[in-house]
Predict the structure.
Amino acid sequence: MQCLEGIFGIGARFTKPLEAYSTGIVDVSDPDNGISFNYFVPDSTKAKAEAASKLEGNMTMVIQDITNPASAGLKGGGLTQLHLKRVDPKFEGSVKNMVRATLSLLRGNQIQAPSKEEAVVWEQAAKFLGGRVQGSKAECPGREPDMSAAAATAMCTVLGRIEVASKLIHNREVVAKDITNPGPRGVKGGELSQTGLKRLDPKHQGTVSQMLGEVSDRLLGGGSQMTSVEALTEPGAKDKVLVWADAASFLASRIQGRDDECEVPHERRKADMSSAAASALSTTLARMEAAHRLTSNHEMVIQDITNAGPKGLKGGALTQTNLTRVDQKDKVSVQKMVVAVCCRLLDQEVSGPSTPEEAKVWVAAATFLSGRIQGSRNQCPTRQADMSVFAAASMQKVLAQIEASSKLTSNRDTVVKDICNQGSTAVLGGSVTQTDLKRLQPGQQQSVQAMVSEVCARLLGKEASGPGPSEWAEAAKYLHQRIQATSKEMPGRTRDMSVAAATAMRTVLAQL
């Protein structure tokens, strides 16, 4: 199957405008692969830049508002949003540091973690400001919005990360004890809650504490200690990786945000943090669990992807025979793809496949693995779940990004020629279809080539360097309308890629 073969046949159909993929949450339902989850679209570079600019221009006023002890607002009149708790003015210096950290994270920089004492102030200040930011008039009638809805979402996302990272920093020992608590009482006394969740053995408390340290570091823009599968060659490394995965899975199920319940709710527990903070922590923990489960089992996964059958790796009948495995001769390329998935789950930029031929192997391997992942026993009753449902969704999102990037890489030249085709004959022969779409001029091929390379790189974790030339936006709009993600969009034709991969690609195209 040729990558994007659908764009060279009869016109594909799509249901959402490109702008719908720029920020927010997109539902992904892919019945052909049995996948369904919410795809969180990262904040666009433009939204982050707007939020940073607004915050920098009003920094003094923001700090004063967070620490305002008066009964009147800074500009006169009564205080609004009284349900939000302000910070004592004596901590103004720490509040200023938190606001500067927010600005730095919005600009894509790693920030230095606060001390245990200052983290208490950072948590409170970030929680207040996150609840205070207004992106529309409806959020607080009587007050003008502080910024656009997209910029407000970007800022609240960053503030959620700071809030929960700070909470973990000053509460790390208590959380580690809770994760490894053998019972029968809670860490702070009283009845042990959520006993349906599996806690870890107390002997792992030190390792769990290390894991929590990495979680807070990652939330504040830092990297991971676990850089590659090669790290498993060190003594005891595999055991440590599995402890981290189990601890991440427990904590993700334990979180209780303000507007939602934890997976196993306990009515007598107050919310642990704001919804934005809970979302930031859940996302980080899910990616961590997925990365470490895959890392610890990568050899078996590679063998499964390239298993020619007829038996499963552990004996017995081969399951999920509806999924297409990869030829054993491509095992080295499959291994590279699996390592790339591990790295992307740990938020590390990776290099894509080295050739168009290898890119096709990555597409096949990513598609198989995405359909193979099991987040619950119900998905395949004869198999145990591979990981939690949250971790499975996180891995499927990364696999979708790798599938999309590899699809584009495997047929890049043809795609570029199609975008710039002004003739009446299609690139691969036959008549040009979808003539209502605006193509670019042949003289713009070099710029379009750069745009396609940028899309591939961003799908694999490259940070956006800023807006490209105007033709990038035109080419992105055209390509968005040419992608065919489901067989129903154009009966009789093979779709270009999975719904999840198309969503991942359209997310990047929208940011261009």
User: Anything to note?
Assistant: Residues 46-170 form a domain with the Globin-like fold (CATH 1.10.490.20). Confidence is low (pLDDT under 50) at residues 1-15, 259-266.
